[in-house]
Fold this protein.
Amino acid sequence: MKTIDFWFDPISPFAYLAFEQLPTALEGSSYSVAYRPILFGALLRHWDHKGPAEIEPKRAFTFRQVQWLADRAGIALQTPAEHPFNPLALLRLAHACAGPGNLPNRHVCAAILDHVWRGGGASANAPERLAELTARLAPSRDPGSDAVKAALKVATDEAIERGLFGVPTLGLDGRLFWGLDSLPMVAACLRGDPWFDATWERSGAPRPGIQRAR
C-alpha cells in the first residue's frame, strides 16, 4: 500500500476542498495518507510570491470559484469573516495533536478545516472558538510550546526543500502534485498509469525562455 503525502494550510479553501474530495477521487485504490500541516505564508515568502487573497481581482474570483466548486460538489463552505488570517494557532494545534509519525490524523485535520470553512462565516481566530476547538481535540502537547512551534517550522522548511510552492500539494512516488485540480493526476499515478513513466520527466524538463526583470 502506497502512502500519499498531503501538505496543507487551513487558510486555503482549495486545500479544504481537496481534503474533502480526496476519498472520492481515489476510490477503489489502496493507499494511506500522511497529513502534513505547513505554513503557506512561508512558501510565499520563499518564492517571493503573493497569495491569491493579496491580489484583489484574484481574491474576488478565487472565492467565487471555490464557492462554485463547493456548491457543485455538494460540500458545505462558508468563507470566514476575515481572510487572509493568521493560521499559526490552528497549525500549531494540528501539530500538538500529532500521533504516530508525529503527524495529525484525518479526524484532527477535518476538525481544523471545518472550523475555518464550515464555521458559518465566523472568525477563524475568535478566542472562544479556538478555545472550544482546542478543548474538543484535547491535544497531547501544548500548542504554544517551543517544541510544537519547532515542529511546524521543521515541517514547513522540509516542504520548501522538497520544492513545494503552494497548497494543497500531494506527494506520491517522489512526485509532487499541486492543487485541487491535480487529484485526477494523483489517482492515475496511484493506478500505475504508464503516462508517468513515459511523459512526466520529459514534459517538465527546463526550457529556455525570457526572464522577467525584477
Summary: The CA atoms of residues 49 and 101 lie 31 Å apart. The mean pLDDT is 97.
